[in-house]
Amino acid sequence: MDVALKLLFSCVVVVFVVFVNDGPAVCGGEAMEPLEMVVDGAENQCPSFSGSGNGGAYPGDTEDDAWPMVQKKGNQFVVNDHPFYVNGFNTYWLMVFAADESTRGKVSEVFQQASAVGLTVCRTWAFNDGQWRALQKSPSVYDEVVFKALDFVVSEAKKYKIRLILSLINNWEAYGGKAQYVKWGKAAGLNLTSDDQFFSHPTLKSYYKAHVKNLLNRVNTFTNITYKDDPTIFAWELINEPRCTLDPSGDTLQAWIEEMAVFVKSIDPKHLVEIGMEGFYGLSTPNKVQYNPNTYAQQVGTDFIRNHLALGIDFASVHIYADSWISPSITDAHLQFTKSWMEAHIEDAEMYLGMPVLFSEFGVSANDPGYNSSFRNTLISLVYKTLLNSTKKGGAGAGSLLWQLFPEGTDYMDDGYAVVLSKSPSTSNIMSLHSTRLAIFNSVCSWHCRWGCKKKDNILDAFLYHDDL
């Protein structure tokens, strides 16, 4: 980490100690006992991520085996009852790379680089159905080599103190997805005419449930910890970017979400569960469809608020792709959409859902007309600033996951969105600074009262918005 960032992180404790001698801090409208709390925070509660990989460490962590689960409390994620605001990333292909000795080192490399800039959560695939390097070769038939590769990914994430969101199936054909489940059903003699019947046919739902059961009850061959008991896992994601155009009313997908969320929780009540939604508004909220990127978005069978009210869903997920949804050509309209899209979903999470919202994919493609790295930095900064505006008010904007982080030498996997930190120092600095800001907030604002942090003279703001690197 940059030396200035280390100084910034150290300075905040001094400022708070000076401040609290001048008067009490106010948290959620109530006075705290601030001097003890801040001195405590200075000595025991400030995580460090100067490349050591312990950016996920929290108060009460004494050793790896005692690493606590992430939970939610109202609109926030918490660890040991302390706030856990997320700066993270996606690298979807980790399991496949870990299955080959020649590429396994890239898994460690990306975790090390992410840890060095303070990233604490990674989202990746825990599926590969019927394809090359398949985890699930046919329903409930697994390639043990690939399953051990996933075990390695989980164990390596733990080593670098990075938590994982594991997605259970794809809506799209890449890595098999619901289309592969339909192929398996047809091979078994089922009369299926649409991939969207994945969401409604009892046999296909039984295939999915069997995979969930097998995965959650898996004992990791590296750590000897059952997946459903492993705090390295941040959350289970039901499906990546679900859409059911066969039923634009949304009823089919809603019923599937309700059934599967409860099923996952019946096996594993400890971990958080999210859907994997893109965030489109549907028929239940006609006043919200104005925020959709286009009219087609309300015809794909998803319904952001309705979907997330399902029993068993712990937090909301939203994706941000202005270049895919609005126009591939880079314009300021991308930034305007990103800001309004985020603010609308944060407001919904607070007013209607009562849960955190994680912007679990966002990015911009280098293949877009008019793209340059400066625009990418501007977009990333906008996402981070919008989240900080929520964070400082104790709002529901709980974090973001960049799509996507790659180590060097994996360019052939790049879909245009890859960020290679070693080749992008300006982007790396932006990410590291945001991690520092969140680490300051997570450790100094140690709540013993209600959420929401207001400090006299906005001292916290001065550090959350300090732009000098």
UniProtKB/TrEMBL annotation:
Query: Mind telling me which Pfam families this protein's record contains?
Result: GH5_mannosidase
Superkingdom is Eukaryota
A GO biological process this protein is involved in?
polysaccharide catabolic process
Signal peptide from the UniProt entry:
1-25
The record lists the catalysed reaction(s) as: Random hydrolysis of (1->4)-beta-D-mannosidic linkages in mannans, galactomannans and glucomannans
Protein keywords? Glycosidase, Hydrolase, Secreted, Signal
Q: Which residues form the Glycoside hydrolase family domain?
A: 69-403
Query: What GO cellular-component annotations does this UniProt entry give?
Result: extracellular region
| Record localization | Secreted
* Record GO terms (molecular function): mannan endo-1,4-beta-mannosidase activity
**Does Nucleus show up as a keyword for this record?**
no
Q: What is its EC number?
A: 3.2.1.78
- Keyword Hydrolase among record annotations: yes
Q: Which family does it belong to?
A: Belongs to the glycosyl hydrolase 5 (cellulase A) family.
Protein name stated in the entry: mannan endo-1,4-beta-mannosidase
Q: What species does this protein belong to? A: Eucalyptus grandis
